[in-house]
Backbone:
């Protein structure tokens, strides 16, 4: 079993404090969902875990099986087992999706032990079928000219090929129609197991109709303000966030506000 | 103030060189006149690069004698690797010596001509007289074109007869392995009405240094409804002063596509101009460049529209590292009367080090109302968010940069029609950006 421990995480972007002490512990075989309205710091948490160059951690720790994640470069974090499905993935012209994914897989292997082309293609084909992606997307340039939905599927495809220990999915459901949502959920569900943990960031409950989380956390004002089981997501869907604000005496849930 | 340039070749030298190749009198006269003109003519003026102090005129010797290749097995390894095993149509020049030639028998019978330029001057005088430095590039244009005409010492001629489509590419390889050598090469390509051909040329130095001049002119003629695809990978050694002028003339419904990989280690002035003379003609220009060391380069790409409904596309991508500098001039010119013409261009420069300099200079000159045109230009460093994205998948920073750079230069690599040449360009890029 692996464990990702986030303790008292404080994060700034361009001098502005966004996260003000986030605590979450995720084990493999667990699915966690982070919910909350816009502007409460959810995506900042995702970016800070992966090491986005614009986000500065000012306090707190992230440890993966006791290893200091914050001391690692972005690529080292990835090779240590972390993965982030990004909300706005970059477009990279001239680099085919397939070449990119092979490079990513080979980055985890010793020189001379690269994944064989045949094996790679077979695996890619089968995962793309699961995600109902056109086969020609493998030869298109990375995310270039992809629709919003195609980009999301492509993020999940990468996750399925790379098989990380922990995946953070940043609003993987936004902009997806119901059919796309189903195939993306199917992809994530295929990953479930004792060697995989997942942190799903969303502000809609509907994704959680297809993926049942073990733990649900609500973020407001740059902190986790409430945690619970799957029933918490259902309550949020039914009643919205106002009851939490009332319970905690929060007037404005966005970051920059204090309780 | 003009710098008086003393030419190392006299009229007598030019006459005797011409005589030794049994050139017709008209051609000798063309050389002699050009030599006289070269003394007085000014250098070209590539926008934003001062070349007044560049040395375009000194060279140790005009011609060197080199061996011919009896078979492809005798080629140096570096050269062998860019010839595909099934390459049937091939011209190889060894410094100034025509060294190997082969042309598919069927094509020969159908009237295709592939020969070294000297043979063409002797044996195909009418075609040469019609096309050689008459329309696309003129000897009296400036000092360097005049010098080129006067001192021409190599090159090749390709003629494709009417309505013949050559399926396999024609390849020309100019091997440079003698430091003393100068290349006054001329490639003349005539695609007659309704014909189709793909031509790929390689300039390849197998020695690290050069002391001579590379003054290269290519002229491409696509007659009505003809189509010419022209690929080039230039890898000339440091020490040359390279002037390379590649021009095309497209008649009605004709198409000229360029894919130029400009990988010289020498200072280089490049002119790539396409004249869209005929209605519905198309000119598509793709250029990629890597500059390194203290190289100074200027790449001027022009598409000049005369024909109605003509379409001109310019794409230029340059990578600059070390203290290299380069200017990328893109000129779309639409003449009066070229209604419905479309002139598009995109120039992008990627800077890999703080001392590198690159300038994208898009110019649209439009003398007609009923047209469309557009340009995009950018100069910058590798996007940190692209690197972040790639690295977030476990790819090292170095490898991520490599992927972004290769992707940036892919537009030319991907369209080169000969596998060996495609691979060669990829490897040259690899070597130069490392």
Residues:
């Amino acid at each position: 079993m692996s464990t990702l421990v986030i303790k008292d995480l404080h994060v700034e972007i361009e001098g502005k404090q966004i996260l003000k002490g986030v605590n979450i512990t995720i084990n493999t075989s667990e699915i966690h969902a982070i919910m909350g309205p816009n502007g409460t710091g959810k995506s900042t948490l995702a970016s800070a875990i992966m090491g986005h160059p614009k986000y500065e951690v000012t306090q707190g720790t992230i440890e993966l099986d006791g290893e200091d994640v914050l001391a690692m470069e972005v690529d080292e974090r990835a090779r240590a087992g972390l993965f982030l499905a990004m909300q706005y993935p970059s477009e990279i012209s001239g680099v085919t999706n397939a070449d990119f994914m092979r490079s990513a897989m080979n980055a985890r292997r010793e020189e001379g032990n690269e994944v064989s082309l045949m094996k790679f293609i077979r695996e890619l084909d089968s995962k793309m079928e699961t995600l109902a992606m056109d086969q020609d997307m493998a030869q298109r340039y990375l995310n270039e000219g992809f629709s919003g939905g195609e980009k999301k599927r492509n993020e999940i495809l990468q996750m399925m090929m790379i098989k990380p220990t922990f995946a953070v999915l940043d609003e993987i459901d936004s902009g997806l129609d119901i059919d796309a949502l189903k195939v993306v959920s199917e992809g994530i569900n295929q990953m479930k197991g004792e060697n995989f943990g997942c942190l799903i960031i969303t502000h809609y409950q509907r994704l959680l109709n297809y993926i049942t989380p073990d733990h649900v956390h609500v973020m407001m004002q740059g902190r986790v303000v409430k945690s619970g089981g799957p029933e918490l997501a259902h309550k949020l869907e039914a009643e919205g966030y106002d009851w939490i604000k009332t319970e905690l005496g929060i007037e404005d849930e966005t970051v920059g506000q204090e309780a | 103030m003009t710098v008086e340039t003393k030419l190392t070749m006299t009229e007598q030298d030019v006459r005797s060189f011409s005589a030794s190749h049994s050139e017709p009198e008209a051609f000798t006269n063309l050389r002699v006149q050009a030599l006289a003109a070269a003394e007085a003519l000014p250098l070209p003026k590539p926008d934003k690069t001062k070349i007044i102090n560049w040395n375009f005129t000194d060279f140790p010797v005009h011609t060197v004698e080199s061996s011919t290749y009896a078979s492809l097995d005798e080629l140096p390894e570096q050269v062998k690797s860019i010839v595909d095993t099934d390459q049937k149509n091939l011209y190889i020049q060894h410094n100034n010596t025509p060294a190997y030639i082969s042309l598919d028998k069927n094509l020969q019978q159908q009237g295709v001509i592939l020969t070294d330029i000297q043979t063409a001057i002797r044996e195909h005088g009418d075609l040469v007289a019609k096309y050689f430095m008459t329309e696309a590039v003129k000897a009296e244009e400036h000092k360097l074109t005049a010098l080129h005409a006067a001192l021409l010492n190599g090159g090749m001629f390709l003629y494709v007869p009417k309505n013949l489509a050559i399926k396999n590419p024609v390849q020309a390889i100019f091997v440079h392995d003698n430091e003393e050598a100068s290349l006054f090469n001329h490639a003349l390509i005539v695609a007659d009405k309704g014909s189709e051909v793909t031509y790929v040329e390689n300039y390849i130095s197998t020695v690290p240094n050069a002391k001579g001049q590379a003054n290269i002119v290519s002229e491409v003629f696509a007659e009505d409804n003809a189509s010419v695809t022209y690929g080039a990978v230039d890898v000339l050694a440091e020490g040359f002063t390279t002037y390379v002028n590649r021009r095309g003339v497209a008649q009605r419904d004709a198409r000229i596509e360029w894919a130029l990989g400009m990988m010289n280690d020498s200072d280089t002035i490049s002119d790539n101009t396409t004249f869209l003379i005929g209605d519905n003609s198309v000119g598509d220009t793709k250029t990629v460049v890597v500059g390194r060391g203290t190289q100074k380069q200027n790449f001027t790409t022009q598409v000049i529209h005369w024909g109605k409904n003509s379409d001109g596309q310019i794409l230029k991508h340059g990578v600059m590292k070390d203290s290299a500098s380069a200017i990328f001039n893109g000129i779309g010119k639409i003449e009066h009367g070229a209604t419905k013409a479309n002139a598009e261009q995109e120039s992008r420069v990627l800077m890999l080090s703080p001392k590198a300099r690159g300038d994208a200079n898009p110019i649209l000159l439009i003398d007609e109302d009923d047209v469309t045109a557009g340009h995009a230009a950018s100069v910058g460093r590798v996007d940190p968010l692209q690197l972040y994205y790639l690295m977030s998948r476990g790819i090292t920073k170095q490898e991520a940069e490599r992927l972004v750079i290769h992707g940036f230069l892919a537009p030319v690599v991907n369209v080169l029609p000969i596998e060996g040449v495609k691979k060669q360009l990829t490897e040259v890029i690899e070597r130069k950006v490392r």
About this structure: Residues 308 and 338 of chain B are 4 Å apart (CA to CA). The longest strand of chain B covers residues 196-205. Chain B touches chain A at residues 383-386, 388-397, 399-400, 403-404, 406-411, 414 (CB under 8 Å). Residues 397-413 of chain B form the longest helix (17 residues).
